Amino acid sequence: MHKKILTGAVISLSLLSFANAKISSLNEAIDKAGKQRMLSQKMMKDYSMIGMNMKFNDPSKQLTESVALFDTSLNELSAFIKDKESSKALADVNTLWAKIKPQLTATPDKTKALELSKMIDKLLTATNKATNAIVKSSKVSSGEIINISGRQRMLSQRLGNLYMLKVWSVGVDDTKLQSTIKEFASAQKKLEEFPKNTDDIKSGLSDVKKDFAFFEVLGASKSKKYIPSLIARSSNKITKKMNTVTKLYVEIK
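Predicted structure:
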């Protein structure tokens, strides 16, 4: 039991530790903007877990930390980014976030979960647009691969988010889960084929591939027997590993 609690704490720290330093380069900005996409999905996942009274990995604490982290990251990005297109995209994120934050921090309500999930999807679109704008402004060749790698963190949390909404029976279309599984597999193939992959990156991608196999099996299954705690653990493991891989891509010159 103590080992499981410790493992959950380690994963939590690894997911939330990336905003402790100010941004000093465009590659770091791409990395941090990409993590905002991930946070959008993680917050909705934890909201649903709280609503279902799940205790695994303390979703209430996770949600509180993620909301604070989203705030901090958005402020840091807004202070660092200077080009007009990226700044406008970040301003749009800020506008949406101001509407969503009060709902995320209120007591979870199943009757409002579907509408909130739609707003979160809009936030995901806005954060993705901001990330892509920052990538466009970057002259570094590794910018695009950082973006793809960073998006995998989001997709791993989106898998967890959509699964929790399915378990909670709030009316989310199951095809979204199937589509996300396919998106993750396609992007993972692109990462594996990147010619500048180091041995550490190859090793990390190999580990992620093993963990993701679980979701592929899940996607093909028609079973109504749900395993939310295991899904939460697996999505966090993949996010943690892809966070490490993305940092390695940031270091590529």
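Summary: Residues 2-251 form one domain.
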